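--- STAGE predict ---
source: upstream dedup step, 1 unique chain passed
mode: sequence only
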Amino acid sequence: MVEAWYMDESQEDQRAPHRLRPNRAVSLEQLRRLGVAYRKLDADNYETDPCLKEIRRAENYSWMDIITICRDQLPNYEEKIKTFYEEHLHLDDEIRYILDGSGYFDVRDKDDKWIRISMEKGDMITLPAGIYHRFTLDENNYVKAMRLFVGEPVWTAYNRPADDFPARKQYVKFLAEEVQ
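--- STAGE serialize ---
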């Protein structure tokens, strides 16, 4: 089961857990109220998994690829790791399914505080368009993930500040409605 928590303010190694002391856990319901969707799937059988096939059909995820993030397999590894960890948003949902390894997605809550979501094999996450977020490997320095898209992939990340984009404005409106 996915685990999430509020992060400390430490600037040390981004791959460390960065838990507050005492820990402030974040529930799946709290993530849902931020628009973050989570599913647990069978990563050992992703190629034939009927659940994944149904999710792709229902959500219209027509395009996918697989990325392996580790020093030996990702060209321009150091540059990519820095880019992934820059706070940004996308104009479309970001869907990631962890097939092997582990890492962290960090998302901003309604009060602009960081929440760290620990992702491991079998975890699928959908981050809504317009949410500020970032990704990093954990201390294992390895993840293999499926990236899913509706239609052709759009890789553009807009670093913060990006508040004038319609996707951001719509997301902020969603947050305001969730609070009521």
